[in-house]
Each structure stands twice: as structure tokens, then as C-alpha cells.
Amino acid sequence: MQLFAQDLVNGILVGGIFAVVALGFSLVWGIMNIINLAHGAFVMLGAYTAYVLFSTWHIDPFVSVPVGFVLLFALGYGIQRWVINWVVRAPLLTPFLLTFGLSLLIINVVLVIFHGDTRGIETAYSGSNFSLGPVTVAWTKLWTLVVALAITAVMHVWLSTSRTGRAIRAMAMDIDAAQLSGVRVSHLYAIVFGLGAGLAGAAGVLISLSYSLQPSMGDPFVITAFVCCVLGGLGTVQGALVGGLVYGVLGSFGAQYIGTGLQDAVALVVLLIVLIVRPRGILGKATA
Amino acid sequence: MGGITGNAVALRVSVGILVLLAFVPLLHSSYDENLVRGVLMFATLSFGWNLIGGYTGYVSFGNVVFFGIGCYTTAALWQHWHQQNVVLSVVLAMLVAVVFALVLGIPILRLRGHYFAIGTLGIALATQEIIANVDWLGAGAGFPVRPLDAYLVYFYAMWVVCAASMLATFFIARSKLGYAFVAIRENEEAAAVLGVDATRYKVIAWAISAAMAAAAGAVFAGANGFIDPPTAFATDDNVFPVVMALLGGVGTVAGPLIGALILTAINETLWSHFPQIHTLFFGAVIVLVVLFLPRGLLWLLNTRGGWKGFVRTLGAYRV
Amino acid sequence: MACIRVGALFALAVAGALALTTAVPVPARADDNTIVFGAALAATGANAREGALTKAGYDFWKDYVNAHGGMKVGGKTYKVDIKYYDDESNPQTAARLVERLVSEDKVNFILGPYGSANTATAAAVAERLKVPMVEGNGAAASIFSQGYKYTFAVLAPGFKYLQGILEMARTLKPAPKTVAISTANDTFSVEVGQGAADYANAHGMQVVYQNKYPADTTDVSAIVSGIKAANADIVLNGGHLDEALLLQRTLKEQNVNAKIFGYSVGPDTPDFRKTLGKDANWVFGGTQWSPTAKYQGAPGFIGDSKVYAAAFNKKYGYVPEYHNAESTAACLAFMYAIEKAGSLDPQKVRDALQNLDVVTFYGILKFDSRGINVYKPMAVNQIQHDDLMTVWPLGVQNAKPAYPTPAWSSR
Fold first, then answer.
1. pLDDT in tens, A189-198
2. Cα(C190)–Cα(C157) distance, rounded to whole angstroms?
3. CA A262, A267, A271: angle at the middle one, nearest 5?
4. Looking at the complex, does the CB of residue A140 fall below 8 Å from at least one CB of chain C?
5. Nearest by CB: C218 against A126, A211, A261
6. Can you tell me the distance from the alpha carbon of C337 to that of C352, in angstroms, rounded to the nearest whole number?
């Protein structure tokens, strides 16, 4: 029983981070119909931002979250506006490969600057934890979950109520009608992509508290983002959140009860089953 | 000029190059021999991908799973039965891969576009991890695979596999199968209305691409000397064939070979001169190829209007 | 016709590309007075750090030999040089590079890469090209079950890595009885874990948890919660540096206490202590060598571990650990074998390696019929007060093991 409870808690804690990673990916995919294979690289950049700020000026990673968001937003905006925009309406393969190439570029630039060494962030409170009955909860992971949920909530509110947010949702529904109503589509596309990157950056900062840093650390998170989006449903904040939490918990139980060597395979098999049985996911709407 | 097989002249030139490549072991060092064997391997993988991704329009991001099946067939034959016979392992590998493709193809090929791509990627990753937990297949540790002493066999086996794949693509493209594939790619619903059994043809395309990839894997494993899950299901072997087909020309017969040659040449040159940052340049190459050659070199050759026509194609997809 | 013109241009381009591939300039071998060793080593990728440690070990030997009059072979004196390529921590790349070193760069001999998978593919190439290879960084015994005759390993094989810790544990009071073992799912780590499990079972200890995790996993929470539930006295891990860091952190986060925490790779590296700070204390690690090892090496090289450590530290600015030492030892195996063979002929050197039996600062260098150095024992280090101390075996220890490890909350 204790093991079950601990695994459940572990799953929820990690699921919060997954939700933030998935959210950015989901927005870009749902609104622009682009699968951004460089998403993991953006996460990694966020983590390295936190590392640089921490090791140079001792800035706590939780404080670096907005910094990571802003920096990556700017990068994402630029990449979309001046690179991806050329092929944004091309068939599937083209943006797929383009973002893959960009991912290689970004990872290798980081490799040249920081080399392959594993780095980590150790704060004064790293590893500290408290007990909740039979379960041990790490403070870092709990606060990460709280911040993740906060980010998710803010995004949801912004998309629903702000002018830009509403323009974005209009664009997602019918791009030509939106353009005719005066929406500057190329600028908005860049904003959406920037948001996706910014959210990835914020997630990366949060991740830097719990995981070791390496230039290739972002790759598994692309798969994670895929699975969460498919599980939870594309294009909505709630979908990413549900997907992240469900994936986190499934992965945790799968690892414990089916085999720790298979923990990633369990998630992938779930992905395949969902794709075949209900591709729109738990909260997704049936597409025309 | 153009058409379902692509540029006719380029096709003849490619066949000529393929024949020339067969002479490489006689004239160059063993390092070059292995390099060209790599080109032939990637070309084969690319031919396979081209059938399902290029002709049929179902972009697969997991064809490496069949390559891995081929690798493990050879590895298992050596480890459990001390068999090194290349023909045996190629045939067996193709059989296993085709069965795998048929069984998984029917559910997976119901998905379209992005979902199909992720589905295939998921299959490849899941298979890799499941094999890493199967002791009979070496689990995460893998097995060494002792190469034949007559190492030249691997080069010529790979050449035969590659030539066969190219030939197969040529005949398929001009046959009923090829036209069915293209019909599915252009408009699957319309094709169904016209009597094309889409499911059947999609599965056939995928099964043939599986056989090609598995054959390449079976030969590769013996030559490599060691197989473990990361080697058999390497991301490079998944992505490069796609980039090569794109570079050479998706949906053409010669495209995969051309793409494999050029990309390997670029990669090798970068690697020799910039060993530390060649992957970075390679990423740049991919970006450039995708931006400027969205459908590949062979289609570029067929574009009318010279340079101006080319420039006009660049802006076609922007917002 | 435009078609033909374009096609011809195109053919030219492709032919040019092909020619380019095979026309990469090949530097001719330096001169006949130099023995050149080739090494494909990780300078980038997952094993970059360990690859750098290996290179330092090789270079230290090369510089020492050149500064002390070179090598005398069959009446002639030679300088030594090492040619490096980056194998990017990728086994296939390692194999290609070894092929290139032998067939294009025409090196005399091969020094091994870092990592068991890379060593396995390199060994296949060395065997095929009939060039001797000596390695100090590929510990999986499976490499040597293929009947290869040209590859030799100076280091103790993988299954021994954690056995030293268990051996030490049996002498401590109160004796720990239960063991939890987690391993990464790769060639080396699986062997390490199984070796520990076999030893425990054979010596009256109970293995209460044994599980694998994917080699590049980012999350080990499930394993750690399983270990916690198993309530073991000894918690061991077979893996590399990244996983050691991840596990140690997660163990602290989930408040998992044990009398002994042991890792196969990690504690020895400066990165481990630097990254974890105080949380690295009390951790044990299996080690191939330590600066306090009391071997007396044969003449021809530094014979004392302390002197080696001091000279290395002076040259590179850090105290060497076992990756450096075993790499130097690989070079020493070649050195003694070549001098004994009196020739650079690959076949003669190979035979001399098979019959080698010499003691060095690193320990005995002797290979069984498979090419493995089963004659060398593993030692155990422990991090005490932020410093690395050798605590086992008794003959080489410079501190007593600090036991049992206190609970996280009382540190």
C-alpha cells in the first residue's frame, strides 16, 4: 500500500512538469499544425539558462522561470518568423525535418559551448522532503508542481480572455477568415510558436532542479510531449494538463508493476492503443 | 521527362553509378569499402521509406524498426545457432519483418498524417525498449556477432540488396501497384471511390518497405560485429533515409540513391575537416535542404522556368 | 534538350560527390622512427568526460616515454605517438574509426576506446584486420567470449566491480545482510549487477531487490520507491556517472536510508563530488586502482602509485583516478610486450601480449586465454568528508570504512 501511494504521488509530481512541456507542444501543433521536433531542444535551453544564472549569480531556479520563458519566447518568435514561416503550410514532412535539423543545430551549439559534461544544480534545499503519512514528498518537486499548475492556469486565462488569445483561437478555427478580419497571421503564428518555445523554456528551468543537464537531455521530452498531447487531446490547456498527469501516473505504475526496464515502453504502448482506439484523446474534440 | 519514375536521365546515370560502385572494393582501401557499404545500406533504407512515404504519402518515422528486426535476426542466428550464412539471415529477416508489418500495419495504417508518423515512431521506440528486456535477444547488453572471415561478402550482399531494392522500386512504380500508391497519396477518398482498395495497397507498400529495411539490417549486423538495442534502432538510421529521399527526390526511383550518395559525401567531408562540429553543420545542411529543395533534387530538375521558376517555388508554402 | 543538359550536369555533380568522398587527404605516416598507436575515443557524446580521462592516461605515458629516451625495440630506438579520433560515444563510429586508423592512417597498434559497446565493435575490427588492441576501459566479459585473439583488457572485468564492496561488507559489524541492486540496461551495467547478485547469493547475503532501468532514463522514481519498500541494508547500482547522480539525488528525495550505498562508476570521478556536494559523502565505489595501491612496478616506467599520482597531478592539475591509471596501464602492456617481442610485427606483439606477466604501479598485467586480466583485484573507495579514501582491501587502505551510513535526516 505504501508503495502504491508513493508511486501515485511520484506520478503526479512528475506529471505536472510533463504538462508544462506538453502545453507548448500542444499549442504549436493544435494551432499551426506543426510538430516541433526542436521542442526538446528548447526545454534544454531553458534548463541551461537556469544553470548559467545559478552558477554565475546564484539566482535560484524558481526565480529564473520567467527569464527562461522570455528568452525562449524571443528565440521561438524569431525562428518562426524568419525560418519556419517559409514552409509553415508545406506538407507534413517538411516542417518535421526542418525542426529536426534545427534541433540538431541547437543541441550542437550548446555542445560546443558547454561540452558534453553532465552538470547539475544543487540548491540548499535540494533533496529536502517531508512525510505525508507513508509517502515521502520532495519539496522541490512539490513546488515545481505548484508552479507548473500556475503556469497552466495563467495560459488558460490568457488564451480565453485577452485579445491576442482570442485572435489566436480564431486563427486556429479558420485561417482565411481570420486574415480577412484583420488578424496579422504571420505575426500571430510567430507569437504562438514563441509561446510554445517559452513554455518549453519555463519547463526546462523547472526540470533543471530535478534532473542532470546535458545537451541531449531534451530528446526524451519530445516523445513525452507527443504522448501527453495524444492522451489528453490536442490544442487545449486542459488537454495538456490531463495528458501530463495521466502519463505521469501511468508511467509510474507501469514502471513498478510491469517492469522498471519497460517504463518507457509502457507509455509508448499506451500511446499506440490510444492512437488506434481514440486518437483525439481524453478531452479532445472529434475533428471534421 | 518526369513522371512516376522521376527524371529519366538521372535514372540512367544512377544505374551507371550503382554499377561503378560495385568495383570499389577492388580499387580502394577497406575504409572506403565500408563507407560505400554504408551508402548502399542507407540507399536501401531510403528506397524502402520512399515506397511508403514518397509514393504512398504515408510519412513513416519508424521504419528503423524493420532494420532493427533484420539486425536481430542475424544476431540471434549467430548467438543461438552459430549460423553466419548471409542469405539465410536476409531471407529470414525479410519474412519476420513482413509479418510484423502486416500485423501492425492494419491498425496503424488507419491513421493519417501526423498521427501515422507518431504511431510509427512509437512502434520503433517501444520495440527497442521491449527487446532491451528480452534476455533471449541479449536484452540491454546485446551480443557480439562474429563477422565472416570473408568480409567482402558483406559488401556484395549489401550491393545486391540495394540493387534489388532499386529494381523493385522501378518495376513497382510502373505497375498497377505504383499507380495505386500514388492515387492514395494524391487523394485517398477519391481513389477509394474509383475502386482502389486503399487498406490493401497501403499495407503492401509498408510490407515491402519493411522487407527492404530488414534485408539491409541483416547484412549490416554481420558486418558490424555487435548488436544492441541502440545500435539496431539508431535514430540516424531512422532519420537519414528520410532526408536522403527528400534530398534526392521523394516519389522517384533514383532519388534515394542520389540522396544517399550526396548526403554521405557531405557528411564524410564535414567529418574529416571539422570533426568536432560536423553534426552542427549537418543540422544546417538538413535545414537548407528542407528550405530550398522541398521535394528534392530530381523534382527540381523538372521545374520549368529556370532560376526564376525555382525562386517562385520557394515562397509557395509561407504565410 | 534541357532534360539531357540538366541530367548531365547532375551526373557530374554526383560523380564529383563520390570522388570527394574517397579523395579525403590521407596524411602519410610520420616516419619510420615513430611507433604510432591509434585510438578512437569519445570527445563528445555521453562518454565525453570519461573519454577525456582515458586520453589523459594515454598521453601521460606517451610523454613520459618520449622524455625518457623512447622505446627500444630490437636494437633501435623509437619515439611514440598516438593518433586520436572522436568516436562520439557511438559504437559504430568507433569501429569505422579503428578501420580508418589501420587501413588509411596505417597505425601500428590500437589503443581501446571508452565503454564496453564501443570496445566490442572495435575488437571485431581489430580481429578482422589482425592488429593487436589493448584496452583499459571496456569491462564487459561478453566481448571476450567471441574467441577474439587480438584484443586484451588490462582492467578487471565488469562482474567484479561491485564484488569488492560486498567483500568488505562481510567484514563489518554488524554485518549487513540484505542487498538491493539496480542496473542500467546496457552491456556493462547488467554484467556488474549480475556479478554483485551472484556474489551475494554465494556468500549468504539475500538479494531483496534486483531491477533494470532504461539506459538513458531521466526518471528513476519507480526504482527508488521499490528499493525503499525492499528495505535493504546495502543499496548498489551498476551504471555510469549520469545515473549515479540521478539515483543519489532521488534516494535522498524519497528519504531512502541504508547502511551502505555503492556505485560501480561515479564516486571516483571529481564530477560526482562537485555536483552533489555534501550529499556525496559516505558513498562507496568500486575502483580499479587508487593512488595508495602498494604495487611495485617493473623498471621502464614509474613503479609507485604515489609517484604516478603526484607526477600526473603536476601535469594535469588533478589527482588521477582509475580511468587515467587503467589507460596508462594499457599503454604499459603494449610497451612491455613490444620490447619483449623485439619487433613491431603485429603477430609477434600479439603473442607477446598473450604471454605477458608483469607487475606495474597499476597492478599485475596478465591475460587469460580469452584476453581478460582476471588476475587483478578490485578495490573499494569511499567519499569521507568530501575526500576520496581507499578503504578496501586491507593491504591498500588509507582509511577505515565509515559504517554504517547515517540517515539522511541526521546528517
1. 899 999 999 9
2. 12
3. 140
4. yes
5. A211
6. 5
